[in-house]
Amino acid sequence: MAALRAGLLGVGMMGRHHARVLRDIDGVELVAIADPGGDPHGVAGELTVLPDIESLIAVGIDIAVVAVPTRFHEDAALKLAAAGVHTLVEKPIAETVHAGQRMVDAFESAGLVGAVGHIERFNPALQQLRQRIAAGDLGEVFQIATRRQGPFPSRIADVGVGKDLGSHDIDLTAWVAQSTYSTVFAQTALKSGREYEDMIIASGRLANGIIVNHVVNWLSPMKERVTIVTGETGTFVADTSTGDLTLYANGTFPLEWESVTAFRGVSEGDVTRFAFPKREPLRVEHEAFRDAVLGLPSEIVTMQQGQFTLAVVEGVIESARTGQSVSF
């Protein structure tokens, strides 16, 4: 079977990695690259860097990856849908929920695969975490807390930290818990002199009753990517920077310290760091997208799912603005 002809729109900080992976996976051939800003990282190779989405489509492609700033997602995606091209759009799906819905509708009406690049779903630590929670390793899950913070990325100029970083945590939390958000309440701060928020504290509840908490900012000199899931039998800690998953089990030994035994809680037990294969998340994401286009079993992040994540992020921003919780 002939390889899928792939086009890539945008070869910036994320696009350069898409180019590398598209060249490396089976069943896909990168045939065209477009970026009005040229090729700052020198990834085009023998390919001519085309100026826009129209010229990319004109080459004749089966699939496309859109890795340009968020405000350009809708225009590119709608043109690709009209041309019959299956498309993976980097997260967030769009700048606004209205734009995102137009994208969802366009791909659904055209019968095309539309996916969103919420790459954390393909992180090996989170995939292991989801499987183990589904298998009942924690019993009932009580809480999911995430921390995603680090220095400000100067390349991000069109959205705040909620849509750029917070969308990761909202999507992965709903996916790991296999539930949707019910309510959120949030506070934000603007400390870097930009028009968008650069710090968020958000809490909420999922439809299945799990309480959630997210700490997100661009104001920390340290980089942190942690997901903590607490349940009946212990706590999982997933570090998506390293792909590590650790279980802190509840203790099973009776306590002899009287002042501690009076507290009806848990005690420290065994700590286990799991060993499992750690494949590059971006490669796994592209393989899933390829398989979906080929009609094979696949778990992509659909545009509809990406749209709901964006709606929750906008709910977080609205809650911070009004001081009221937002329900979905």
Automatic annotation (TrEMBL):
What region holds the GFO/IDH/MocA-like oxidoreductase domain?
A: 127-236
Record organism: Rhodoglobus vestalii
The protein's matches in InterPro entries, at most eight in alphabetical order, are given as: Gfo/Idh/MocA-like_OxRdtase_N, Gfo/Idh/MocA_Oxidoreductases, GFO_IDH_MocA-like_dom, NAD(P)-bd_dom_sf
User: Which molecular function terms from Gene Ontology are attached?
Assistant: nucleotide binding
Q: What residues does the Gfo/Idh/MocA-like oxidoreductase N-terminal domain cover? A: 5-118
Q: Which UniProt keywords apply?
A: NAD
Q: Does the keyword NAD apply?
A: yes
Protein name per Swiss-Prot or TrEMBL: Putative dehydrogenase
UniProt entry tagged with the keyword Metal-binding: no
